[in-house]
Amino acid sequence: MSAILWTVIRVLALGSALVLLPLGVGYVFFHRGEFDRGLIYLFGVCAVLALFEAVYLPFFVIGRTLSAMTAVYFVLAAAAALLGFFLNSKHPKPPVARAPLSRREKALLLAAVLVAAWQIVRTTFGAGTWNIDDAWYLGLANTALYTDDIMRTDPTTGFPFNYFEHMGAYLTYVFSPWPLYWAMFARLFSLTVTVLMRTVLPGFFIVLFYYVVYRLALFFFRGEREKALFALAGLGVFYELCAVAMNLRYTWMICYPWMGKAFGPSIICPLALCFFILIEEERDAHRRRGLWLGIFLANVAGCMVASSSAEVSLMLLGCWGLVYVMRTRDWGAIWRLVLCVTPSLALMGAHFML
User: What values do phi and psi take at 75, rounded to 5?
Assistant: First the structure.
């Protein structure tokens, strides 16, 4: 009984960290009521992932330990989150009046929640979770935990292997250390990597995925909540019907959400697009600058999560950016967009050159 209680406490602590750290970091940038709390949280998700890339790279190059990197990262992230909550408390906001949900909206929301809950249960308990990349993702994280080094041991053999010296061959994993990010959480919250990524995190990731889908639907339907909820429920059913094979890429977020190639293209890349399309109707200069920064952080975060995110971000933002410039004649958006996608361009350029 005590073991179960201790596990529940650790999972709740992890959940608190996954909610409070991004939200607090988001408040560092937006604490005067510029955006709603949901968008600030999504901005913070990109910021904490981008922060890890900035902390990881020097530790990887100089060959320091995972323990040292974990300590530095969480000190910086916690300090930034505390600063964000402090700044937010200094700027009280008037209560926002929201219209209550209608009966149809409640029914649509219930349908979406039931479908998402079923997908969480199905994924958590092992349906559709096999994939050859599993061994690599979980192997890298477990190897880092057991050896306490950062990409200095081959997870397939257990022998010393300096990935820094073989960067060209392993560029995908060197600059996209998604497994090491969760190895830190596994160490901090005393959870095994397999349990953390296969059992604990899928529910959180799927909920986050559907929230990003809802935010996009809300924009496309011009703030009409009922239509956005209908789209959310419909897409949930569509994903459930289609999530029957591992090679259907648009259902990766349902089949194995703990993998970087699922989380990045399904959450981070659409989030970068969400920030960009919000710029189109934003007239406040400060908010526009914040959204441009969000696109940049989403590109850094995408590179950290999976190299495929860089490619998807470039395609999404390139297509939407071209249409935006042709329609609005806002030529200044070209150089801003180029600056924002610089991380993705650099990673793709490195793939071609190395």
Answer: -65, -45
> Amino acid identity, residue 218?
L
pLDDT digits (tens, 9 = 90+) for 179-188: 999 999 999 9
Joined together, the tokens standing for residue 325 give 């410039």
Report the alpha-carbon distance of residue 175 to residue 354 in Å, rounded: 13
Cβ burial of 78 (10 Å; 0-12, 13-18, 19+) is middle
The per-residue pLDDT for range 70-89, each reduced to its tens digit, is: 999 999 999 999 999 999 99
Diameter of the chain measured on Cα atoms = 65
DSSP codes joined into one string, 170-214: THHHHS--HHHHHHHHHHHTT--HHHIIIIIHHHHHHHHHHHHHH
* Residues 207, 116 contacting (CB under 8 angstroms): yes
Q: How far apart, in whole angstroms, are the C-alpha atoms of residue 139 and residue 31?
A: 40
Give 51's contacts (C-beta < 8 A, 6+ positions apart): 25, 73, 76, 77, 80
How far is residue 126's CA from residue 325's CA, in Å, rounded to a whole number? 45
Q: Which residues contact 293 (CB under 8 A, 6 or more apart)?
A: 29
